[in-house]
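Researcher: We're teaching a course module on how sequence relates to structure. For the next exercise, students receive a sequence and then see the predicted structure as tokens, so they can try to spot secondary structure elements on their own. Here is the exercise chain.
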Amino acid sequence: MTEKINLNAAIGGLNLLDPLDNMGSQYAIQMDNVIPDSDGDKIRSGFTSCISGNFATLIPVPFAGNEKLIACKSGSVSVYDPTNWETAPTTTSGFSTDDWCFANFVDGAGKQYVFMANGVDTPQTYTTADGLQNTSFTTTGLTLDSPLSFKNTMYFVGGDWDIYYGGTQAISGTLNKFSVGSFFKKGGKILTIQNWTQDAGQGMDDIFVIISTEGEVMLYQGSNPTEADWATLGVFQIPRPIGKHCCEMLGADIIILTENGYLPLSSVLSDLRANRTAISAKINPIVRGKDFSKKWEVHFYSKKGWLIVNAPSGVTGNAYEQHVLNINTNAWCRFVGMDAQSWAVLFDNIYFCNGTGIYQADVGTTDNGNWITYCVQRAYNTFGTPEKKQLMRMVPRYSSFSENQIYKRINADFNVGKYRIILTQDNNGYSSFWDEAIWDESYWSDEFEAYTTRAGVQSKTGSFISVGFYGRAKNSITFTSTGLMLKVCNGHL
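Model: And here is the predicted structure for the students to work with:
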């Protein structure tokens, strides 16, 4: 007996949490360079080169009409005009590290600043009129990091347990100090400070957040440490955070990258353990076990509604990969092939840098002229019957500007084979591109063959069938559904 089945797009995204034999059909167990969206699974856009160089950190300058991109490399800081990359940048050299943090600030006269600090060198400020300069705050004998604008005041992390801050709307003068070490019981030191807008019981207010290297989170409410209304809301425990670039605002919350997943800060205030789940729960197997000593970043790209986590990669030839949450569908996927060390969102544009240059992402349909390789492997499915079955036909349906050759992969009953997930084409045809899959051992066989989009297949029989497809593209493709023809082996389990 044969059955025809329509399998909708994997809008649930990547799922590495649920058991393979009890996972919803809306999920995928591999989803690389394909975004789970409300109208289908879309191959991500490409990127294009802006300028060559060995860059380590990008900092956006979001001054309307005077936007700039600050790029740090080899102890120098260069200011580029992203509307005209042919214009020579202004460059300041002599710095000890390229790992800068930044904060935007507006002084009492309405002048815009970008404050930069790296924990080693004298903090810097950038303005349109004056360019990059040493800060006007008195910093003699101080090593400041992680600048923060909180209630019209600039704050810095200085020393293991000290925080320094200026006057209201001030950009110069003596910095005040307050110490918090006696409140933290796990040791370590202050990692970062954040501004969190939250209702703490008396209406909406900005809360001052201090996060330690050991995962202790201290919350303050009030105007500033010298005022009578400055009071602690408590010290809470989260898993250890990953690096000083571990936080990003998402809606009214702060997402914190931790060694146990990506955690909303609001969860630390929840009385319900069920509400303390990491937003990355579905993909935590690829979060845990990464190299937490390397640089991690997290950014919200509001144009597309993507939360992008830049994480170290185990893929040969790629130092970094991106874990991407589409907040429109609350679904995850993984980007590979963009070996980004640092990202910057500047209005509607997004950029990344690495050892070869600065690139604009989410543009075009190629990776700087090269093919974009992709893979979707769907959840195992019984298709409504526990009896053994065999897939006879598989028809991916998609919208695109041109016809595409799509490679298909089918597996039955969790058969473990060698991994060869995403393929790329060279002059000798298709060959293995990645040495490491998302799993330690992938759940399909190593045998594969290319078919046109409408072709017969003959899979092994099994109670659970996983269908997948992969390929390469230089044009936009949105997969909307997959037509399947199954042969059911009646009476056989």
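Model: If you want an answer key for the exercise: Residues 2-45+374-488 form one domain. The longest helix spans residues 284-287.
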